[in-house]
Every structure is written in structure tokens, then in C-alpha cells.
């Protein structure tokens, strides 16, 4: 689902097609991305450093089961608009309309909870643009992102516990990197008069 302000590398299609061909059971193929600024220049923000460190070292890696979902809940390190989907392997209910920010993670969690696979490919074939006008940035400033991440983490923790997935349940309850993002948003909001800060603080310290 190509974002309007991003760029595809010339080898995107070939890389993704090869990955789908080699792994026909993968519901999603997630390639690596390069972050760029509003002018198209490569950047390396703290967020991108964390994503890169969280990414498995293998050229290709299957996320599946308890271990795979626990990785995603610990740090949501994939670049969502870079992902290619195999529709036949997705759940009938794709993106949940409740969400404005976490619809991707919600879908990926349901894929893995239902026994599906997400294939990671370290080839950097996507250019992901970061700037203050993105919806993600706006949702962070309004605390929508933190509120939804907290709510979804609770849902995933319960679903994982019901399946006996202890690693995922623990990672979802803690959702450490999401809390860190929320803490940064709250700290930045202290410079201005911002509504919703009290609710955001409650979300920040909520344990499921």
C-alpha cells in the first residue's frame, strides 16, 4: 500500500516477486527500507537505528508463531508501506476500521496468531520519507498513536495468553519501544499547551 510521499527503488518489484516465489506460504513480504527526509536525502534517526538493530541479521527470515509475534510486539521494526501482501493468505477481515494508526500491526498480529508467516528481506528496496506532516507524526503529537498502541497491546496480550504464547503475552504487556515513543511525544508536548496529556500519561504507565 504505497504511501504518496515515499519512493520505490528500481529493484523493488523484482526483489518482492522473488521473495514471494521462494516463500509461497508467506502472507506478507517485508523488505528493508531507507529513511529519507522531506527533500529526499537519506537520514538515520533514532527510530531507524532501533528498527535496524531489531531486524534479524539473516538476509531472509520468517516471522512465525510466538517468537515472531513477540519480536513485533517488542519493537515494531518493519516499514509498513514497503510491505507486499499475498491476499489469498490474509484473513477475511483485513484492516480494522477502529484504528487510525495501528491497523498494520493489528493485521500482522492476526496473521501470526492464525498460524501465518511474514517473510523479512534485508534488501533496502524502499525509501520511507519522514517529515512533520505525515499522519504518523500528527498521530504521535495528538497522542492517538500512544492510545491505540496501548489498547492493541492489551488485545494482543490477551489473545496470546489464550494460546499459551508466553513470549508474546509478555512483550505485548511491556511494549517497551511503543512506550518510549509515547514518552518522547509527551516530553515534546510540554513546550506547548496540549490537550490529552493526562490520558497519555495514564496510557504510558498502564500494564496489561
Question: Short summary of the structure?
Answer:
This protein is 48% helix and 16% strand.
Entry keywords:
5 strands, five-stranded mixed β-sheet, alpha+beta, 9 helices, 208 residues, 16% strand, single chain, globular
Structure explained in plain terms:
The structure is a single chain. This protein is an alpha+beta fold and 208 residues long. The protein contains nine helices and five strands. Strands 1, 2, 3, 4 and 5 form a five-stranded mixed sheet that branches. It is globular and about 45 Å long.
Which helices and strands appear, and what pairs or packs with what?
Elements: E1 7-8, H1 12-22, E2 26-36, H2 46-54, E3 60-64, H3 65-74, E4 84-85, H4 103-113, E5 117-129, H5 135-141, H6 144-163, H7 166-174, H8 176-189, H9 197-204
Parallel strand pairs: 2-5
Antiparallel strand pairs: 1-5, 2-4, 3-5
Q: Outline the biggest β-sheet.
A: 5 strands, mixed
Order of helices and strands: EHEHEHEHEHHHHH
> What's the total helix number?
9
What fraction of residues sit in β-strands?
Answer: 15-25%
Mean pLDDT over all positions: 85
Described by the principal axes of the CA atoms, the overall outline is: globular
Radius of gyration: 17 Å
Instruction: Return the structural class.
Output: alpha+beta
Helical percentage: 40-55%
Unreliable runs, pLDDT <50, ≥5 residues?
none
Number of strands: 5
Q: Please report the distance between the alpha carbons of the first and last residues.
A: 31 Å
Amino acid at each position: 500500500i504505497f504511501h504518496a510521499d515515499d519512493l520505490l527503488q528500481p529493484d523493488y518489484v523484482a526483489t518482492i516477486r522473488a521473495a514471494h516465489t521462494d516463500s509461497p506460504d508467506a502472507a506478507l513480504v517485508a523488505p528493508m527500507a531507507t529513511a529519507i527526509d522531506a527533500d529526499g536525502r537519506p537520514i538515520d534517526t533514532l527510530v531507524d537505528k532501533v528498527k535496524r538493530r531489531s531486524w534479524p541479521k539473516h538476509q531472509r527470515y520468517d516471522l512465525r508463531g510466538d517468537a515472531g509475534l513477540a519480536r513485533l510486539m517488542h519493537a515494531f521494526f518493519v516499514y509498513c508501506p514497503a510491505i507486499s501482501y499475498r491476499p489469498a493468505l490474509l484473513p477475511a477481515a483485513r484492516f480494522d476500521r477502529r484504528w487510525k494508526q495501528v491497523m498494520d500491526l493489528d493485521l500482522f498480529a492476526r496473521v501470526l496468531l492464525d498460524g501465518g508467516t511474514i517473510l523479512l528481506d534485508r534488501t533496502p528496496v524502499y525509501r520511507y520519507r519522514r517529515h512533520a506532516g505525515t499522519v504518523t507524526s500528527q498521530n504521535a503529537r495528538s497522542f492517538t498513536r500512544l492510545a491505540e498502541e496501548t489498547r492493541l497491546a492489551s488485545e494482543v496480550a490477551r489473545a496470546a495468553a489464550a494460546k499459551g504464547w508466553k513470549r508474546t503475552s509478555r512483550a505485548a504487556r511491556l511494549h517497551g519501544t511503543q512506550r518510549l515513543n509515547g514518552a518522547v511525544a509527551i516530553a515534546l508536548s510540554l513546550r506547548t499547551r496540549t490537550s490529552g496529556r493526562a490520558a497519555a500519561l495514564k496510557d504510558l504507565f498502564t500494564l496489561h
